[in-house]
Design a protein that fits this description.
Layout lengths: L1 H28 L17 H10 L5 E3 L5 E3 L1 E2 L7 E2 L8 H6 L14 H16 L2 E2 L6 E2 L3 H8 L5 E6 L5 E8 L4 E5 L2 H10 L5 E11 L2 E9 L13 E5 L4 E4 L13 E4 L13 H11 L4
């Protein structure tokens, strides 16, 4: 009985094994096949690429911008239908000027010698204020600051005409800031100055004309040398200076002219040194010289 059950179990096991092992053995018994990769066919070129290649095959075209520059037309491979031309060179400024109509530019008038002389005279008059007509030439009422102080500079010698006596003097400017400090150039001129003063030095304001560098300037002077000694060195501190000025700087620069110190000449809008103010009496004398017609 036991033998029969064992035989039945073995038969069942063999039957089940045939369903699993035999198919596998059958597969292994078949000959092996080699796997191959199918060839990759090349992509057909797109129409845009074909167009681009054909365009690049076209010969280059050259255009002449000028004698020294050549430019070629280039096709954009991304946008075959778009042409990109080279940037032209900058146009010279003279080329721009050539397109301006001739009527837009007015010609510059040519000035003749009389025109230039008239312009210079007008400029002088505008700088110097009023100008009067006189027998000896135009008399200018020239402001001192910025004008007359430069025309009659320190060290310059001018001719001074006293309106009352008509005496002409040679006078050198030796200093002064608010007005001109001046001296006679030699003893002869000092003697004439004393004659103008009436034989005695005084502070009277006198209308005069100062002639220098072709100009005739209305001015005023006093015939009173002061603040210096002819016998002492210039610009040294000395005692008993002329005109009752006591001890101080010796403002006597021209030596040997028989004059101790210097005297004053005022111009339009000049000022005194002591009070830094415009002296009305000097300005009245300047106006008299300006309107004298001398």
């Amino acid at each position: 009985m036991i033998i029969r059950k064992t035989a039945a179990l073995i038969s069942a096991a063999l039957f089940l094994t045939s369903f699993t092992i035999m198919p596998a053995l059958a597969i292994m018994a078949q000959p092996s096949q080699q796997l191959t990769t199918p060839p990759i066919e090349p992509e057909k070129p797109q129409s845009t690429i074909t167009t681009s290649v054909q365009t690049f095959a076209t010969p280059r075209r050259e255009i002449a911008l000028d004698d020294a520059t050549l430019a070629a037309w280039v096709v954009d491979p991304v946008h075959p239908s778009a042409d990109i031309s080279p940037t032209p060179s900058p146009t010279p400024a003279v080329a721009k000027a050539s397109v301006i109509p001739a009527t837009a530019v007015s010609p510059t008038p040519e000035l003749t010698a009389p025109d230039l002389a008239s312009s210079e005279e007008s400029l002088d008059r505008s700088r110097s204020g009023l100008v009067s007509n006189a027998a000896g030439g135009a008399i200018v009422r020239m402001p001192w600051f910025g004008e007359a102080e430069s025309v009659y500079a320190k060290g310059d010698t001018a001719t001074v005409i006293d309106l009352e006596t008509g005496i002409r003097l040679q006078i050198q400017r030796t200093g002064g800031h608010n007005h001109a400090d001046v001296e006679a150039i030699n003893p002869e001129e000092t003697a004439k100055l004393l004659q103008v003063a009436g034989g005695e030095w005084n502070w009277t304001r006198r209308p005069i004309i100062v002639e220098i560098d072709g100009q005739r300037i209305a001015a005023s002077m006093t015939c009173r040398p002061h603040a210096g000694l002819d016998s002492q060195p210039a610009l040294e501190t000395v005692r008993n200076r002329s005109g009752g000025f006591g001890t101080g700087v010796n403002y006597d620069s021209v030596k040997g002219n028989d004059m101790d110190g210097h005297f004053d000449i005022h111009f339009y809008k000049s000022r005194t040194h002591g009070t830094n103010s415009v002296d009305s009496q000097h300005q009245t004398a300047i106006q008299a010289a300006y309107t004298s017609g001398l």
